[in-house]
Write a structure and sequence with these properties.
Distance between the termini: 76 Å
Strand order of the largest sheet: 8-9-7-10-11-12-13-14-15
CATH class of the largest domain: Alpha Beta
Strand content: 15-25%
Low-confidence stretches: 1-21
Mean pLDDT: 93
Order of helices and strands: HHHEHHHEEHEEEHHEEHEHEHEEEEEHHH
CATH superfamily of the largest domain: Peptidase S8/S53 domain
């Protein structure tokens, strides 16, 4: 007992000296107190969040007072994301992709924070707690701990450290667990109208909206060869051979590759149809089987399952999408990342992933959002809001925003994907199995289509930089140089953008 007490005293003395000297951990000059009284009920937190959403058309936990934040952590699976930094870190966004957590400065703060948390827990509970008892994820790349840590006194002690970049409830969601989303996975059962596709060689179908953005004309010059598109979504179908053994078929038989991975679940393959549709739109083969072709039908494809469905409302989904973005960032050949997924709530965890991939040179396309029940009034969702992402939404043939698509000032470009008179007749893509296409709509399909167009442009000039490719898309878009208040620069023009890249060669 005496030995344990001596060790404890020495540890506290070391921490006090370290915090005073600023060598590893340092307390903020202005601190907050542990919240007084009982924490807020779920109903109170929900009302605050929804009221803030309505008032500000955005929500970030940093806007809430500390008691509200501590209260939110108590609900859901009680996980909290803790972003940290060294005291020497000046511009974490610029450094994020270069951090080595095993380097001496980062290892020191990482280990000091771990010990600090365990010591504070012992003070609070009177019990010795092991790191593995509370650990959900210790990110090996980004400076983030994900912990199951609802203790308000420990969270407050962390909040008062300069080393802590953020503390966020990771699994909080307004409403009940039963109200969480399973959106976008079932696919359309609407009967295909014959005027919504045309046939082309060597025996495949072109969705009607491809012509609206000049894709068939662009194919005369570029087909995406040599470019790898990364797609992060909710899984693809193992029964769809055109995203498997027949990926190199028909006019797409050029030795291209399709690879898969997962950061969510135990496999890249699921029954959710959404990822299959997105991959089919972006890079499905120009086949001889009677199925639809993708935009960049000679591009390589790297798919990562990062979520359960299109709405990122689980702590595990946010963490997994962050990890997928890191994996895409570290993938040497991926140039373009397409994400037709999102959440109405700002997430520092997701933002760290976006910044990492962007800093690694990736061109990131993200969906502006598609309406589901209570979200129908909402504007552009995250991560599309972030300036590192190119926000895409869908429009009707007449350029009006599609019935279920979100728009707003953060939108960069649009893609027609809905008939003027029938919201059920959208773009077309690969089914879960077989070849007969299914309709797929919303900003999701517009985003995957835009990613395919970027691959066509980049293949026309492989030496172009990311900013140059964006400029070709921008200067050839529908409204350029003007910009609308809610639909950005309007429709992309694949043929004109490819031509701009060729002329620049």
């Amino acid at each position: 007992m005496f030995t344990a007490l001596l060790v404890s005293c020495k540890r506290e003395q070391f921490q006090e000296q370290a915090m005073q000297s600023g060598e590893v951990l340092r307390q903020k000059a202005t601190t907050v107190a542990v919240p007084d009284g009982d924490l807020f009920s779920k109903e109170v937190v929900d009302n605050y969040v929804l009221r803030t959403l309505e008032d500000r058309h955005d929500f970030r936990w940093e806007w809430a007072d500390w008691k509200m934040q501590c209260s939110a952590i108590q609900y859901g699976d009680k996980t909290v994301a803790i972003g940290y930094r060294t005291l020497a870190s000046k511009n974490i966004e610029a450094e994020l992709h270069q951090i080595n957590l095993n380097s001496a400065p980062w290892k020191a703060v990482r280990e000091a924070l771990q010990q600090f948390i365990l010591d504070e827990l012992q003070k609070s509970t009177g019990n010795e707690v092991k790191w593995e008892d509370i650990l959900v994820e210790d990110d090996p790349v980004l400076p983030i701990f994900t912990l199951r840590l609802p203790d308000a006194s420990v969270l407050t002690a962390l909040y008062n450290l300069e080393n802590v970049r953020y503390i966020e409830p990771l699994d909080y969601w307004p409403g009940t667990q039963a109200e969480r989303s399973s959106s976008g996975c079932s696919g359309s059962t609407y009967t295909i109208n014959s005027v919504d596709y045309t046939s082309t060689t060597p025996g495949c179908l072109i969705p009607w909206n491809f012509t609206s953005v000049g894709i068939p004309t662009a194919w005369n010059t570029a087909q995406g060869q040599g470019i790898t598109i990364g797609v992060i979504d909710a899984g693809i179908s193992s029964a769809q051979s055109l995203l498997g053994s027949a990926f190199n078929s028909g006019s797409s038989n050029v030795g291209r590759t399709i690879t898969t991975g997962y950061t969510f679940g135990s496999s890249a393959y699921t029954t959710c149809s959404h990822g299959t549709s997105m991959c089919g739109l972006a890079a499905g083969p120009r086949n001889s089987s009677g199925a639809t072709t993708g935009v960049a039908y000679k591009s390589n494809l790297h798919f990562i399952r990062g979520c359960e469905d299109v709405m990122l409302d689980l702590s595990s989904e946010k963490t997994a999408v962050k990890n997928a973005l890191v994996a895409m960032g570290n993938h040497a050949t991926v140039r373009i990342v397409s994400m037709s997924i999102g959440t109405p709530f700002y997430s520092s965890v997701l933002y760290d992933g976006v910044v990492y991939a962007y800093n690694k040179g990736k061109m990131i396309f993200a969906a502006a959002g598609t309406s589901y029940d209570w979200l129908s009034w909402w504007g552009v969702v995250y991560p599309a809001v972030h300036p590192q992402c190119i926000a895409i939404t869908g429009v009707k043939e007449n350029s009006a925003t599609c019935d279920d698509c979100h728009d707003g000032s953060e939108v960069d470009f649009t893609v027609p994907m809905e008939r003027n008179t029938n919201a059920s007749r959208n773009s077309l893509s690969l089914p879960q199995s077989g070849t007969w296409p299914t309709y797929i709509g919303g900003s999701s399909c517009a985003t995957a289509t835009a990613a395919g167009i970027a691959a066509l442009v980049w293949s026309a000039r492989p030496t172009a930089t990311r900013s140059q490719v964006f400029n070709y898309l921008l200067t050839t878009s529908q409204y350029y140089p003007s910009v609308t208040s809610s639909r950005g620069y309007g429709n992309l023009n694949a043929a004109a953008a490819v031509n701009a890249a060729v002329v620049a060669n």
